[in-house]
């Protein structure tokens, strides 16, 4: 047995190390997704027997105005969240400079990353409070009255996304800081010899070495925008009148509060399909880019 292990350990060792993660992935992700898809084909209150309705939940979803409001808000999240990678890169370039006091400044930028999303939501709820919040103080300094952005259906989603951007930008900053610390000194030195500096150095020498980091930053940012839930739940609970709801929160609201687990599962399935399409497309882009690079 020992001899067999020694002969086969070149593949047995990595298999045994990877096996727990694979089992968890299939159990928690794939089986749960399949189960959710099955529930979406039924009318179910979460406790009693399930009633087969086929694509009835999806047909209702197609005619549900709240679904399109949630989908539109997810698109707003996605568009605004795309500011996180470039802003994270800009801050990373700033705090990566060897200037006195920069370590203290870097530690301040790390604060949003260690805070829970619930905490960030509560803090920004206070910021947006029109009576005594930070926004009210800024408007008061200019002799104006602060709007109640969390109560305005036209501005509420933008206000929530701005709050969520705070930790997301910090996360991208950390990714880019790791990438900047692994830049090739030889390439940078060669660029300086050729007279590259400033924007030319950044565009032609630094950014090409951060391609993989950028791929990760964009992927994590897009997934974060699509699965947005906690900030909406803490700050507005989808209000006012469902105007700030997103697909993940609508799924939660329909399942937990309305006891419509089949309808909630249909929303979850649509969200899963959207994310799966993006992931497949994005991975194919990465593979083609690497093949061209190779």
TrEMBL record:
Q: Which UniProt keywords apply?
A: Cell membrane, Membrane, Transmembrane, Transmembrane helix, Transport
Indicate the transmembrane segments per the record: 75-95, 107-128, 155-180, 201-226, 261-283
State one Pfam family annotation.
BPD_transp_1
Task: Name the membrane topology term.
Answer: Multi-pass membrane protein
Indicate whether DNA-binding appears among the record's keywords.
no
Q: Where is the ABC transmembrane type-1 domain?
A: 70-284
Q: Which InterPro entries match?
A: ABC_transporter_permease, MetI-like, MetI-like_sf
Cellular localisation: Cell membrane
Major localization class: membrane
Recorded hits in Gene3D superfamilies, A to Z, give: MetI-like
**Record carries keyword Membrane:** yes
Q: Which family does it belong to?
A: Belongs to the binding-protein-dependent transport system permease family.
Q: Which PANTHER family match?
A: ABC TRANSPORTER PERMEASE PROTEIN
Protein name (database record): Sugar ABC transporter permease
